[in-house]
Amino acid sequence: MIPVYTRPKSLTDVVTHYCPGCPHGIAHRLVAETIDELGIQERTVGVASVGCSVFSYNYFDVDFQQAAHGRAPAVATGIKRVNPECIVFTYQGDGDLASIGMAEIVHAAVRGENITVIFINNAIYGMTGGQMAPTTLVGQKTTTSPFGRDPSTQGYPVKISELLSTIKGAHYVARFSLHNPANIQRAKQGIKKAFQNQIEGKGFSLVELLSTCSTNWGMTPQNALKWLEENMIPEYPLGEFKTGEGE
Amino acid sequence: MEKRVVFKEDHCKSCELCISVCPKKIIRLRTELNRLGYHPAYVSDEDQEKCISCALCARMCPDAVIQVWRP
Ligand SMILES: Cc1ncc(C[n+]2csc(CCOP(=O)(O)OP(=O)(O)O)c2C)c(N)n1
Ligand code: SF4
Ligand code: SF4
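^ Those are the sequences you sent over. The predicted structure of the assembly is below.
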């Protein structure tokens, strides 16, 4: 028999703590496949954030550092500057990156740090029990917006990829979705590009991945992916927003 | 018999995402529980031959449960 799909070597052989159907697991697998394919397992350093993916250091078979809430890009900056031969990536949720960590991600992009950022947008704070995130959609119900997000008091969703693509120091900024196998394949290509850019010294690369939180959204995993496709993609269009510095 | 699609059943969480994408509709959940307390997904020995080795299930699985081979 010829192998068509085998488990990535850069994933550890443990059961994750993620809920059934959580796309964090898909994103982990894509990053691990990329590390395998680029042959960089021995020199990759991940930086975990705060959120459900705080334990991601247990799931990747590479060196890892845990950062304080939102500070992963600053920690990654330090690691990369001291060890330029290492391939450094952060793995951050939207509560982590787009609220408390907004300053760190913007300035890492402004400085054009040669790091890779994997940004999971599931429109909610997952770990702490489903509070409103900066990325929560208008009208979306969360535990802190029980009647739906109301722009008159709670503002509008933050579009991280669009925002960062206006920054000259950012080399590659793209948004993909994890709701079906075709989109998962596209996301994989984007993740690979974001790591390849770092290997080639091209600078700051961020891949935003639209994701779900079936537990806090109160849906089955399948219905959550359908909700993502129908509601999140119109608000967060997919595509490559920036593919070279200075444009 | 050489299997085309193999499940690491003790890692499965019964999310059914593999079932939702399989074009041949051959993936089912066991009635027994695994050690996590979930009904793991599997493809029966008879249905292994119907598998077209497309690996859509493996690419969808959030828990890296599935590995796929082709003859
Ligand atoms: C300084 C600080 N403030 C607040 C918290 C509480 N906290 C933990 S996780 C989290 C948000 C996580 O949401 P997100 O980044 O979207 O990740 P998810 O859990 O959805 O994957 C917050 C606010 C904290 N741990 N530290
Ligand atoms: S490889 Fe394709 S046909 Fe075979 S079980 Fe998986 S999804 Fe179904
Ligand atoms: S997608 Fe993976 S975890 Fe979910 S039911 Fe299928 S094999 Fe189990």
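Residues 24-242 of chain A form a domain with the Rossmann fold fold (CATH 3.40.50.970). Chain A has nine helices and eight strands.

Shout if you want it in another format.
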